[in-house]
């Protein structure tokens, strides 16, 4: 049977109208971006199928990790947790035929099923009588597993209802893959954003009109000070007229850098702050785009803001783990990273100069350097600023 004929027969068997089918498919793909994915889809299926539970298992339990499951129905965590810790290992309704909805009586004899420990001790207390499901992708490497149940006193699932769920399976497979790709991208973004935060580097993303789309915490803190640069009516504004004109010239230049889709335009400038504060370093560059990212509110410009007075952050635990430094030695090291001399650090820490110099010699011995400049180069060039 040709795929289009098979799809047409499933659609006819499902009893769905075009509008109903369209709504369910939209819920599948909209569920990719929900905070807890596919909750609206599962609730819609629960109501349409007159089910008491609909669950989507995105990761089965292992000795190393708990299961990851989204479900619609009455939450009963005390009972549900026993599946993860005990009953999953004896569940016969797993490793189902790929991409096909089946009922439990197709896998195991009904009398044996109703007498089984998993039914008597896990499913029956949840008021589950009829059970169907599918492994999307199939086998131990299934992309996800969907399970649907009905309570005592209800009727078995019909062929119409099985066909309805089967229609959704290829879309669910695609949506779960999209969510996985999105999660990977978000993990990568979090790593890079975290590194910028640790380095106290502000990052602001602008659209084609220079409006701020997104900014990180370091940028928010710099802009909130309103010292040299600030956020005004949704855009960046330098405090001094000449610097503000230069800032906006660089932004416009970066926006125009998308026209030929060549290497991104990069510009830089320094922004003056009030007396007693060092200047801010500003880097303006064209945001990377793909051929298909031309939308009205797409990111067009990245503005990087560097505060010369920012301090390197590091914990005593990290200093000990990397170099074996004691808390006192770590504290002195951080003062030196802040730009203080040994004598200035000793005064701030209320210790004698001799004590500070003894600690510094111990730090040299543990890090394998012989001079303070080498120590700073080692620490600033290592992972300390990134951790």
From TrEMBL:
HTH luxR-type domain ranges (all copies): 322-379
Taxonomy, superkingdom: Bacteria
InterPro entries cross-referenced by the UniProt entry: Sig_transdc_resp-reg_C-effctor, Tscrpt_reg_LuxR_C, WH-like_DNA-bd_sf
SMART domains assigned to the protein according to its UniProt record, in alphabetical order: HTH_LUXR
Protein name: LuxR family transcriptional regulator
């Amino acid at each position: 049977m040709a795929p289009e004929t098979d799809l047409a027969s499933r659609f006819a068997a499902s009893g769905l109208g075009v509008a109903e089918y369209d709504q369910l498919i939209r819920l599948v793909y909209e569920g990719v971006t929900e905070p807890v994915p596919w909750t609206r889809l599962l609730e819609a299926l629960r109501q349409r199928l007159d089910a008491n539970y609909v669950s989507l298992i995105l990761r089965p339990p292992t000795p190393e990790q708990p299961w990851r499951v989204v479900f619609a129905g009455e939450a009963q965590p005390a009972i549900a947790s026993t599946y993860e810790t005990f009953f999953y290992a004896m569940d016969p309704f797993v490793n189902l035929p790929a991409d096909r909805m089946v009922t439990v009586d197709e896998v195991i004899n009904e009398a044996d099923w109703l007498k089984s420990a998993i039914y008597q001790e896990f499913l029956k207390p949840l008021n589950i009588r009829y059970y169907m499901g599918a492994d999307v992708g199939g086998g131990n490497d299934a992309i996800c597993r969907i399970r649907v149940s009905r309570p005592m006193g209800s009727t078995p699932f019909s062929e119409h209802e099985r066909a309805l769920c089967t229609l959704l399976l290829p879309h669910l497979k695609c949506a779960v893959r999209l969510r996985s790709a999105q999660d990977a991208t978000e993990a990568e973004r979090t790593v890079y954003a975290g590194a910028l935060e640790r380095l106290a580097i502000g990052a602001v993303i602008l659209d084609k009109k220079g409006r701020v789309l997104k900014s990180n915490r370091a940028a928010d803190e710099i802009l909130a000070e309103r010292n040299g640069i600030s956020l005004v009516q949704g855009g960046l504004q330098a405090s001094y007229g000449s610097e503000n004109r230069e800032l906006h010239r660089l932004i416009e230049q970066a926006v125009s850098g998308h026209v030929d889709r060549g290497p991104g335009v990069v510009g830089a400038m320094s922004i003056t702050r009030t007396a007693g504060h060092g200047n801010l370093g500003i880097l303006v560059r064209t945001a990377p785009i793909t051929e298909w990212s031309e939308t009205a509110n797409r990111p067009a410009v990245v503005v990087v803001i560097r505060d010369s007075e920012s301090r390197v952050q590091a914990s005593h635990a990290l200093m000990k783990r990397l170099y074996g430094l004691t808390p006192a030695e770590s504290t002195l090291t951080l003062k030196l990273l802040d730009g203080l001399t040994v004598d200035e650090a000793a005064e701030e820490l209320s210790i004698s100069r001799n004590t500070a110099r003894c600690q510094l010699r111990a730090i040299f011995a543990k890090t394998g350097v012989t001079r303070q400049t080498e120590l700073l180069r080692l620490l600033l060039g290592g992972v300390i600023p990134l951790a």
